[in-house]
C-alpha cells in the first residue's frame, strides 16, 4: 500500500458476534474493519485513533455472510412456473423449453432479482451455474456481492455445438476469474453425468487442468439418474466421474442424494465437497442426502438453494434450518446437525466448498463479509443462545445490515447497490415476455 492510499477504518461496538469457536461461539464486544478486511474482533475495545467511525451494535447479532453453494440465479424468473413435479419431467417439460427462450437480457433481469433477494436475506456469496454468464458477472459487479461463477453446459447436442459451448465455458472462466475486485472466481462445470457424454466430460476435466480451476456438477440427485448411469456406463455416478478424472481436480458436487457407503468413501478420499440442497430435494421429491454420514466420513458439506424454480426462494436461513431439522427426523437422533453445525454448513464449510480461503468466519485477516440480525424481536427473546436462535428461530427477514468486502450493501433492510423497484418491475416484464414468445 502506498503512503497516499487512504485506509477506511471503522469499528462496531456493543455487538454480539458469532465466531464459530467451539469454546466460545458468541462473543459480546467489538470488531474493527480496515478496508475489505476484519482486523480485530474481541471482548475488549482496542485503543484506536480518535475520530474513526463507530457503528453501534446494540441489539445486533453479527454473523459471517451466508454462502449459497449451488444455484441458477436467473431461474427466479421461473419461480412458481412448474411446481409439484419430479426432476426429469420438470426439466424436460417446464424448465428447458422456457430456458431455450431466455435472452441475455432475461438472464440479467432474473439474476438481478435473485441477487437482490440473496443480499437482503444475508447471502454474501453465491455459486451460479448457468448460460449467458457475462450478464451474471455484470450483476455481481454492480451489486457488490461475491460469487463463484461458471457456464454450465448441457451436452445433449451435436458435436459442433458441444465444442462451441465448451469454448464459451473456457472463455468465461478465463476472462472473469479474479474480476470485480477479486469478488468473482470461476469454475468449470459440465451440467451432469446424464446430460454430458463421458468423452465430453473428459474435455471439461482437461480444461480445468489447463486453467488450474476447480469443477462443479450436479450428481446423484435422483434414484432414476443413478440407475440410468449404471445402465448406460456400467458404473454409478461417483465411480463414473472418478474414472473420467473429475476428482483429480478440486471438486464440488451438488445434491449427492443417492450414495452408498463406498461412494461416500470415494468422495472423502478425493476431498470432494458436497452442496446439500435440502429445500430443492424435498420439493422435487428427490430424497434426503446422507449428510450425517458424509460429515462423519470427513466430507465437507455446505448448503445451496438450487434455483428459485425448485425451492421456491433463496433463503439460506431456511436451508440451514431444514438441514438441522430433516436429519434429526430421518435418523431419529435429536443431536444430528446441531445449530452450530448447520451454521457452519451455511458459512465456513460453504467457503471451503467453493475454495475461498478468506471468507466464512469472523476473524482477523478475513474478508469483511458479514451480516447483522436484529435480535430485538419477539422470536429472538430471551437471549439464551443466539446461535440456536439464528438457526431455529430466524429467517432472512431478520437481516438488518449486510457488508461485502467491507462495503455496506444492505442498510436497515434496503439494498444500497441495486434499484429494487426497477428490478422487480423488469423481472415481471421479462417473465411476461417469455410467456408471449
Ligand atoms: C446448464 S445451466 C443449468 C441447468 O441446470 C438446470 N437445473 C436447475 N435445477 C436443476 C436440478 O435440480 N438438477 C439438474 N438440473 C437443474 C437448469 O434448468 C439449467 O438448464
Ligand atoms: Zn442445480
TrEMBL record:
Where does this protein hold substrate? 99, 151, 163, 191, 221, 306
Every Amidohydrolase-related domain range: 63-409
Q: Does this entry carry the keyword Transferase?
A: no
Give, as one word, the top-level EC class.
Answer: hydrolase
State the EC number(s). Answer: 3.5.4.28, 3.5.4.31
Listed InterPro entries: Amidohydro-rel (IPR006680), Deaminase_MtaD/DadD (IPR023512), Metal-dep_hydrolase_composite (IPR011059), Metal_Hydrolase (IPR032466), MTA/SAH_deaminase (IPR050287)
**UniProt entry keywords in alphabetical sequence:** Hydrolase, Metal-binding, Zinc
Q: Where does Zn(2+) bind?
A: 70, 72, 218, 306
Does Lipid biosynthesis appear among the keywords?
no
Pfam families in the record: Amidohydro_1
This enzyme catalyses: S-adenosyl-L-homocysteine + H2O + H(+) = S-inosyl-L-homocysteine + NH4(+); S-methyl-5'-thioadenosine + H2O + H(+) = S-methyl-5'-thioinosine + NH4(+)
SUPFAM superfamilies in alphabetical order: Composite domain of metallo-dependent hydrolases, Metallo-dependent hydrolases
Question: According to its UniProt record, which cofactors does this protein need?
Answer: Zn(2+)
How is its cofactor bound, per UniProt?
Binds 1 zinc ion per subunit.
| Main function | Catalyzes the deamination of 5-methylthioadenosine and S-adenosyl-L-homocysteine into 5-methylthioinosine and S-inosyl-L-homocysteine, respectively. Is also able to deaminate adenosine.
Family that this chain belongs to: Belongs to the metallo-dependent hydrolases superfamily. MTA/SAH deaminase family.
What is the protein named?
5-methylthioadenosine/S-adenosylhomocysteine deaminase
Q: Which organism is it from?
A: Paenibacillus chibensis
Amino acid at each position: 500500500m502506498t503512503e497516499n492510499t487512504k485506509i477506511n477504518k471503522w469499528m462496531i461496538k456493543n455487538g454480539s458476534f458469532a465466531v464459530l469457536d467451539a469454546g466460545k461461539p458468541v462473543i459480546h464486544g467489538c470488531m474493527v474493519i480496515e478496508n475489505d478486511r476484519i482486523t480485530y474482533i474481541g471482548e475488549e475495545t482496542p485503543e484506536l485513533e480518535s475520530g474513526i467511525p463507530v457503528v453501534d451494535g446494540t441489539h445486533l447479532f453479527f454473523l459471517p455472510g451466508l454462502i449459497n453453494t449451488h444455484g441458477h440465479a436467473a431461474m427466479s424468473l421461473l419461480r412458481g412456473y412448474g411446481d409439484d413435479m419430479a426432476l426429469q419431467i420438470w426439466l424436460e417439460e417446464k424448465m428447458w423449453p422456457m430456458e431455450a427462450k431466455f435472452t441475455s437480457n432475461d438472464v440479467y433481469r432474473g439474476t438481478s432479482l435473485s441477487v437482490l433477494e440473496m443480499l437482503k436475506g444475508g447471502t454474501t456469496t453465491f455459486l451460479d451455474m448457468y448460460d449467458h454468464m457475462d450478464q451474471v458477472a455484470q450483476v455481481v459487479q454492480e451489486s457488490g456481492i461475491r460469487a463463484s461463477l461458471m457456464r454450465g453446459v448441457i451436452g445433449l447436442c451435436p458435436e459442433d455445438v458441444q465444442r462451441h459451448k465448451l469454448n464459451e465455458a473456457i472463455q468465461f472462466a478465463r476472462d472473469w476469474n479474479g474480476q470485480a475486485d477479486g469478488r468473482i472466481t470461476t469454475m468449470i462445470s459440465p451440467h451432469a453425468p446424464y446430460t454430458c457424454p463421458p468423452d465430453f466430460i473428459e474435455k471439461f476435466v482437461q480444461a480445468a487442468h489447463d486453467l488450474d480451476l476447480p469443477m462443479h456438477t450436479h450428481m446423484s440427485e435422483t434414484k432414476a439418474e443413478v440407475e440410468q448411469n449404471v445402465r448406460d456406463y456400467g458404473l454409478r455416478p461417483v465411480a463414473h466421474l472418478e474414472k473420467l478424472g473429475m476428482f483429480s481436480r478440486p471438486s464440488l458436487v451438488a445434491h449427492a442424494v443417492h450414495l452408498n457407503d463406498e461412494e461416500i468413501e470415494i468422495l472423502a478420499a478425493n476431498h470432494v465437497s458436497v452442496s446439500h440442497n435440502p429445500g430443492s430435494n424435498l420439493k422435487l421429491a428427490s430424497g434426503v442426502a446422507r449428510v450425517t454420514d458424509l460429515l462423519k466420513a470427513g466430507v465437507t458439506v455446505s448448503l445451496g438453494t438450487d434455483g428459485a424454480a425448485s425451492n421456491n426462494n433463496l433463503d439460506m436461513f431456511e436451508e440451514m434450518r431444514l438441514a438441522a431439522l430433516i436429519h434429526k427426523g430421518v435418523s431419529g437422533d435429536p443431536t444430528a446437525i446441531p445449530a452450530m453445525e448447520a451454521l457452519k454448513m451455511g458459512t465456513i464449510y460453504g467457503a471451503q466448498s467453493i475454495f475461498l480461503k478468506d471468507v466464512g468466519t469472523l476473524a482477523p485477516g478475513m474478508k469483511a463479509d458479514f451480516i447483522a440480525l436484529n435480535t430485538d424481536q419477539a422470536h429472538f427473546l430471551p437471549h439464551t443462545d443466539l446461535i440456536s436462535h439464528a438457526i431455529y428461530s430466524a429467517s432472512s427477514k431478520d437481516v438488518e445490515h449486510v457488508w461485502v468486502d467491507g462495503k455496506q450493501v444492505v442498510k436497515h433492510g434496503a439494498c444500497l447497490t441495486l434499484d429494487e423497484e426497477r428490478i422487480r418491475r423488469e423481472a415481471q416484464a421479462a417473465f411476461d415476455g417469455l410467456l408471449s414468445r
